[in-house]
Amino acid sequence: MKKILIIALSLILPLCTFAQKKGFKLVEKSGEKPEWVGKGSVKDFIIVQSDKPTIDEAKADAMQKVRAEIASSVATNVMRTVNSYTQKTIEDGNATTNATMSIESTSKIAKMPAIQGVSITKAETYQELFKNKKTGEEYYNLYVKYPFSQFDLVELVTAYEKHEKEIDNQIAEYEDGLDNIESVEQIDAAIIALGALSKELGSDDARVDRISGISNRYIAIYDNIIIDIVNNVKGQLTVRLVYNGKTVATSQKPRVSSNCAAQFNVKNDDNNVIINYNADYCYDQDDNYIEIRFRFGSKFVKEKAYFK
Q: What DSSP character marks residue 42?
């Protein structure tokens, strides 16, 4: 998988000291105004400003702006080649796939734990309190200078790409797993995991269509599982599940019914399901049968085994 990485620290925000609101006067400040207040940018720092009715609201808003700026910087510097195919094309015995270039979305990158964990405790701050004496209203002007160097940017880009590659590998593993189905529970687990991956990526990710295609292929396996009768004698029936000519295991016990038999005892033995029953009320002249039914996802797989 090819990757292009462009490292460029772009932290310039169009920032100037916000104009004082009409009718409000400065009544309190946290200290001498630092020289960086009102500057658009300072090397290795992100500078943001927020004015809110309470200091807690101002802090929350300012840190949200810091996170957004960090996410934007990471998104600008990440460009990956994403395998977005839903099926392989075979020509002359050779498999080929399609690929697209994708620039990662800021909103997706902003969900990174490292970015969500950004805290104002690491920042330098300066605040001012303004009050309107006539109305009693007040608001805070908060300025935040958050450290964010090129090293920090490279570290986040690297972490993000590592995480995305892990997702790519997971998707590939689930796709490879389609050729090696050993149990029904493997199918169930793959469908659930693929659904979780799809939610994690979001609808704007090119890989979601691929995941959907793989998930649908797992679901389709349910339609192609058959119940194979291994042994059928009066009083005992042994069956197994088969897919693509191979035995498929399951921990699930089937529902069993009959037009005459009763007192069923069902147990799983290795890859077989053994069904013992009482056939005292079954007669030779009748079409006696045992019906076996499994439910896989929303699909039912069933078979009738006739006996004399």
A: B
Predicted model pTM = 0.70
Terminus-to-terminus CA distance in the chain, angstroms? Answer: 61
> Are 110 and 68 a contacting pair, CB within 8 Å?
yes
Cβ neighbours for 95, distance < 8 A, ≥ 6 positions apart: 88, 89
Q: What are phi and psi of 19, to 5 degrees?
A: -65, 140
Q: CA quadruple 252, 257, 258, 264: dihedral positive or negative?
A: positive
Q: How far apart (Å, rounded) are the C-alpha atoms in residues 30 and 144? A: 13
Q: How far is CA 173 from the centre of its chain?
A: 15
Distance CA 187, CA 181 (A): 7
Residues listed for the chain: 308
Pairing of strands 255-258, 262-269: unpaired
CB-hemisphere CA count at 13 Å for 13?
27
The token pair that represents 184 in the structure block: 């029904």
Give the C-alpha distances (Å, rounded to integers) separating 18 from 9, 25, 38, 56, 80: 25, 13, 8, 19, 39
Residue 158: its H or E element: helix 150-177
Q: Is 124 exposed, middle or buried (0-12, 13-18, 19+ CB in 10 A)?
A: middle
Q: Measured between alpha carbons, how far is 227 from 239 in angstroms, rounded to an integer?
A: 7
Paired residues of 267 in beta bridges: 274
Cα(158)–Cα(5) distance, integer angstroms = 10
SS (H, E, C) 225-274: CEEEEEEEECCEEEEEEEECCEEEECCCCCEEEECCCEEEEEEEECCEEE
What are the average pLDDT values for consecutive 10-residue runs of the chain, which has 308 residues? 41 49 89 89 93 96 94 82 44 50 68 88 95 93 95 92 91 95 95 93 85 95 94 94 94 94 93 94 88 92 92
Please identify which residue in the block is written with the tokens 């972490």.
159
